[in-house]
């Protein structure tokens, strides 16, 4: 990523970040290479495709699924995915009777290691407030009409626990391989704001 | 609490992958937090609280907080936590900011 217009004066936020970064580098608290590596990793390597692989494996491997629901961090470590902040991951399974929704009411805690960076709407106050006040109404805004006998459970993430939803495997996906399945799993389904349907 | 309508949210229609960083400074601010935390300079709990405070403060000043100013809050919280922990001082930050600006103008010239 490069700055598009070098001739333009730097904005206030650009100046503040550069000032802070250069001071912290001078003090030896961070180094440029490590910062670049983090940016590269989040921009190019970490994303919802990782979570999708985890979900696809859970759908096809009952033992893995059991471990995932019991101790998600251990299951992820098994797949060689570990959390950058070392926070605890908990996976909640959607069933015919239960739909899980993930939010962070404090700020925007999010299962980064498996989903990448959060979308804007996840970080917004309206989303955060409505997830708690009226989750069913919120889901309707995302196009999810849940039957009245489906219980909606809202999981409030925090600095210690990050939640991830294990979506329901869609009907008609019985014959699909783990790899094919991983391609139909969406980020929203893993946050709980989407369902997975076969096209 | 006021209940802003969700339809004011930018990017509510959802694509795969999701928005990453809109501008380079956002990625830089993001990486700084991760790195400082990794070095043990603050806990993730401390960071979450600091960010929560920055968001509340911005909202109290009228920011609708619909997601587009998120990294502004992130940067404000980063400045707070680094000065609060004595890693830098506000004076140093201000003078360095001035230097960076001077240097940028020297290298790239004025556009007007």
- In round numbers, the mean pLDDT of chain B is 77
Class per helix and strand makeup of chain A: alpha/beta
The largest β sheet of chain B comes out as: none
Strand content of chain A: 5-15%
Helix content of chain A: 40-55%
Low-confidence stretches of chain B are 1-19
Give me the number of helical elements of chain B: 4
The oligomeric state of the chains shown is heterodimer
Q: Would you report the number of β strands of chain A?
A: 4
The largest β sheet of chain A comes out as: 2 strands, parallel
Number of strands of chain B: 0
Tell me the name of the CATH homologous superfamily of the largest domain in chain A: Nitrile hydratase alpha /Thiocyanate hydrolase gamma
Work out the radius of gyration of chain B.
Answer: 17 Å
Rg of chain A, alpha carbons: 19 Å
Description:
The complex is a heterodimer of chains A (199) and B (112). With 199 residues, chain A is an alpha/beta fold. Chain A folds into two domains: 12-44, no CATH class; 47-191, Nitrile Hydratase, Chain A (Alpha-Beta Complex), CATH 3.90.330.10. Chain A has helices spanning 12-26, 32-45, 48-60, 62-70, 72-78, 112-115, 120-123, 125-133, 135-141, 178-182, 187-191, and strands at 88-93, 98-103, 151-156, 161-166. In chain A, strands 1-4 form a two-stranded parallel sheet. Chain A has a two-stranded parallel ribbon with strand order 2-3. Chain A starts with 11 loop residues before the first helix and ends in an 8-residue tail after the last helix. Chain B is globular and about 40 Å long. In chain B, helix 1 (24-38) runs parallel beside helix 3 (70-84) and helix 2 (44-60) packs across helix 3. Helices cover 59% and strands 0% of the residues of chain B. Mean pLDDT of chain B is 77; it is low at 1-19. Chain B is mainly alpha-helical. The N and C termini of chain B lie far apart (46 Å). Chain B has a domain at 41-112. Classes of the chains: A alpha/beta (199), B mainly alpha (112).
